[in-house]
Amino acid sequence: MKPVFMTFTKKDLINFFVVMVVAIVIIPNIVTTSYWYVSILIPFLCLALAGLGQQIIIGYTGQLALGAAGFMAAGAFACFNLILRVPEIPFFVALILSGFIAAAFGILFGLPSLRVRGIYLMVATLASQFFIVWMIDKFGWFKNYDTSGIITAQPIVIFGKPLTSPVAMYLLSLGIVTVLTLVAMNLARGSTGRKWMAVRDMDIAAESMGVSLLKTKLQAFAISSFYCGIAGALFAFTYLQSLEPAAFSIKLSFQILFIVILGGLGTINGVFIGTAFILLFPVLLNFIGNKFFHGAVDATIISSAEQVVFGALMIIFMIFQPLGMAKIWENIKLKFAPKSDRPLTS
Amino acid sequence: MTDQLLFFLEVVVAGMLSGTMYSLVALGYVLIYKSSSNFNFAQGAMVFFAVLSFVGLMELGLPFVAAFIATILLMMMLGLLTEKLVLRPLTNQSEETVLMATIGLGFFLEGLTQAIWGVEVRKLDLGVKDFPIPWIADNFKLFISALDLVAAAVALTMIAGITLIFKYSKVGLGLRAVADDPGAASSIGIPLKNIMFFVWSAAGVVALVAGMMWGARAGVQFALVDLALKALPVLIIGGFSSISGALIAGLIVGATEKILEVFLGPMVGGGIEGWAPYVMAILFLLYRPEGLFGEKIIRRV
Question: Is A138 in CB contact (< 8 Å) with chain B?
């Protein structure tokens, strides 16, 4: 995997501005059905945030970790307990603290990365997935001794006002995701990110250059699970609006892995492209199923078809374009760019 | 013997016997890894695919033996296609890339299986019941399930057979040569293609048998994929390239998770089985990263 260094040009600033205007001004004015907020836009933001966390650990640091949903569960239930047990705690404080709690778990379960890599590390990180979810499920304290299995999330209160409408939830998630995306971009661009990439590309060389493997890897695990933790809290409070350990199954972890791999390893915009694809493709498939087969196709067939396509795409991308959709998008952009912008060799 | 000791023994034996089922799944991973140094994450999905196809074919009216043979042929074809379409184009790619591609293959197969055969849980009757054998219960006061015993016997036979083939047959010699250095092996005339075909067929048979054992116990359903995931810690503990390691690690993992579940489980509400193998794998990785019998020492990081 080649490092992708980001440089900001004037054009990027304009692009950023356009995206923000579309997301903040245009979408809330145009999209009025709550379906789009509840089942597309809000999960998009939550999953993209978790994808960013996964990207940091897999795409930038090259550590094959597969337990994002475990850290998301840690974040979600940490947030629930903080709001429940600490009186008058502001939502943002609870959110950030739950990120830190998830980060602590990340450091703990990142320890095996100091000894092993590849498939070995993947199995070791699966422990986090199963252990964290089991712990939350079995110790009643985490669930406030609720026996029904599904707990309703507390309403989000910001400056004394409870958020209720889907648009407000969307804007809240958007704000958090935007800030964290900018932070991730700057981390990846700066010395932190370069250390990550050095470890990813050749750890022995990195170590001989004075990069501490211990510090770099654990830091990457901490930041990655911080992102996952916040994503998990948002996922529970804005998307599901309930907390249940079963929502954070291994399936979710695989979904986040797919986002990162299909989107493009080692890119930030790839995460967003990948998330959009993962969420919109099933919608498209359902649409086709209803439109052309008039509901004659079973829902299970459609969800299996979705799995088949994701799996096949993953193989195809690994063979032909390991850098994923972000790279394809870049190639398309280059094709239409004016001659002066194209690189001399291609 | 006191009752307590007897109970403990019973738990250990039951755990070890069901552990051999993990060994069977892990054996499939070992076969592919040993001969091509590729880790085939999709082996778990292949178990699911194999047994569901087998049950599906029986439902279509094929007799037991015909369905068995047809499924094995199907698995051979699947292996050949995997080798040609997925692994061949990825030679010389990094280990991580191949791993991700096989994760994709696993998802592809799971989806395909469900698209073809549907999602409902099916029963598989092998003629062996999941009940204690009366004779052992009477004479030794141990309650051991007949199905467990049969599964363990089958697993042992297969593992012994494959070990013998690897050690003493010409194909086995070729296999080891290919695993060592594919280039050198083919330059002295070892038929690489035939060898790979043999390996994939063997992995297919192992997948089918493992699936049948699991399916007879827990029903043929999607949850088999999660069970197959537990073969990964077994694989790590046993070492990636050791056939007997897979067996012994299966016994260890099976016994340990049962002991923890039965004696510690009630204190915390159960479910320890779900994560114990993974935590064991972590502990093993800290002290012995190459596993019990693995030869290759992992690159230091």
Answer: yes
Integer angstrom CA distances of residue A180 from A175, A221, A228, A231, B245: 9, 16, 11, 10, 46
What residue of B is the nearest CA neighbor of A260? B100
> Across the interface, do B96 and A306 touch by the CB < 8 Å criterion?
no
B279 and chain A: CB distance < 8 Å anywhere?
yes
Q: Position A145: which residue type?
A: Y
Nearest to B112 among A117, A258, A308 (CB): A308
Contact B179, B34 (CB under 8 A): yes
* Stretch (H or E) spanning A243: strand A242-243
In this prediction, residues B19-47 reach a mean pLDDT of: 89
The reply to whether B99 touches chain A by the CB within 8 Å rule is: yes
Instruction: Categorise residue B111: left if φ over 0, alpha if ψ from -120 to 50, beta otherwise.
Output: alpha
The whole-model pTM stands at 0.90
Minimal Cα distance from B105: which residue of A? A311
Min CA distance, B21 vs chain A (Å)?
19
Provide the residue-wise pLDDT of chain A in tens; the chain has 346 residues: 444 455 667 877 888 889 888 898 888 888 888 888 888 999 999 999 999 999 999 999 999 999 899 999 999 999 999 999 988 889 999 999 999 999 999 999 999 888 888 888 998 899 889 999 999 988 888 888 887 777 888 888 888 888 888 899 999 999 999 999 999 999 998 899 999 999 999 989 999 999 999 999 999 999 999 999 999 999 999 999 999 888 999 999 999 999 999 999 989 999 999 999 999 998 888 888 887 777 667 778 888 889 999 999 999 999 998 889 999 998 898 888 777 666 655 4
Give the residue from chain B lying closest to A309, CA to CA.
B108
Helices vs. strands in chain A: H and E counts, helices first: 15, 4
> Does A279 touch chain B if contact means CB atoms closer than 8 Å?
no
Complex confidence, ipTM: 0.88
Query: With an 8 Å Cβ cutoff, are A118 and B96 in contact?
Result: yes
**Extended beta strands in A109-204, E state:** 151-152, 156-158, 161-163
Contact B199, B31 (CB under 8 A): yes
The residues in A 29-68 lying below 8 A from B, measured between CB atoms, are 62, 64
Is the Cβ–Cβ distance between A213 and B301 less than 8 Å? yes
Distance from CA of B103 to the nearest CA of A (A): 8
The residues near B2 (Cβ < 8 Å, ≥ 6 apart) are none
Within 8 A by CB and 6+ apart from A144, the residues are A80, A81, A84, A151
Residue B228 is encoded by which pair of tokens? 């197959």
Whether B104 and A322 have beta carbons less than 8 Å apart is answered as no
